[in-house]
C-alpha cells in the first residue's frame, strides 16, 4: 500500500515539473521502468541514472518511471516518441539486450517483468485515447528478481553501458518532424 505522504510527493512532483502544460512535441522521452528495490528488475531505472551523468541532446528528457503506473499517461501523451528501458524475463541469458519497435500494446513482449500488466494496460489506454506516442522498447534480459536489494548481477550491471550506447545510437538517428 502506498502511503499518503508518497502520494502527496508524487502530486507535488507533477505540479512542480508542469509536464502537462509544456510543449514536448519536438522532444523525446527516455523512460526507465522498473522497481529499483528488486535487483535486476530495476535495470531501467539504473539506466536512467547512467544517462543522467552524460550530456544528452537538448530535446531529450529522461525520467525514472518506476513501475509504470497510469500516472505516467499524461506525461507520455505529450511526446511524439518514448524510448522505454525495461527488464524482461524471456529465458535469454541475463544482460541480453533487445530493441523492439511495438506499434500496439499487443506487440509488447508477454514476458516483461513484475509490472507487465500495468505497463501494457497504460499503453492500451493511451492507444484507446489516440494519444499513444511512437515507442521504442529496449529490453534487458534478467533471470530472477531479488527483493530488497538495489544491487545488480554482474551480467545485468555490465549491460547498462551497452544499453546507454544503444540509446545514444538511436537518438543520433532520430529527427523529430516539426
From TrEMBL:
TM spans (from-to):
none
Which Gene3D superfamilies does this chain map to? HybD-like
Which GO-annotated molecular functions does the record name? endopeptidase activity; enzyme activator activity
Cite the InterPro entries for this sequence.
Pept_HybD-like_dom_sf (IPR023430), Peptidase_A31 (IPR000671)
- Family matches, as Pfam families: HycI (PF01750)
GO annotations under biological process?
A: protein processing
Residues of the signal sequence? none
Q: Which NCBIfam families match?
A: hydrog_prot (TIGR00072)
What's this protein's name? Hydrogenase maturation protease
Native source organism of the sequence: Lutibacter profundi
Amino acid at each position: 500500500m502506498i502511503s499518503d505522504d508518497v502520494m502527496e510527493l508524487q502530486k507535488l512532483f507533477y505540479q512542480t515539473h508542469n509536464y502537462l502544460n509544456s510543449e514536448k512535441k519536438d522532444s523525446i522521452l527516455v523512460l526507465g521502468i522498473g522497481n529499483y528495490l528488486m535487483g535486476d528488475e530495476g535495470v531501467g531505472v539504473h539506466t536512467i541514472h547512467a544517462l543522467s551523468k552524460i550530456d544528452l541532446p537538448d530535446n531529450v528528457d529522461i525520467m525514472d518511471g518506476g513501475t509504470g503506473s497510469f500516472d505516467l499517461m499524461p506525461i507520455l501523451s505529450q511526446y511524439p516518441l518514448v524510448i522505454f528501458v525495461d527488464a524482461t524475463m524471456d529465458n535469454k541469458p541475463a544482460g541480453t539486450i533487445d530493441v523492439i519497435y511495438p506499434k500496439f500494446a499487443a506487440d509488447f513482449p508477454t514476458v516483461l517483468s513484475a509490472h507487465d500488466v500495468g505497463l501494457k494496460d497504460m499503453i492500451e489506454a493511451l492507444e484507446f485515447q489516440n494519444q499513444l506516442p511512437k515507442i521504442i522498447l529496449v529490453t534487458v534480459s534478467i533471470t530472477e528478481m531479488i527483493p530488497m536489494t538495489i544491487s545488480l548481477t554482474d551480467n545485468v550491471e555490465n549491460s547498462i553501458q551497452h544499453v546507454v550506447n544503444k540509446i545514444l545510437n538511436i537518438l543520433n538517428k532520430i529527427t523529430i518532424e516539426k
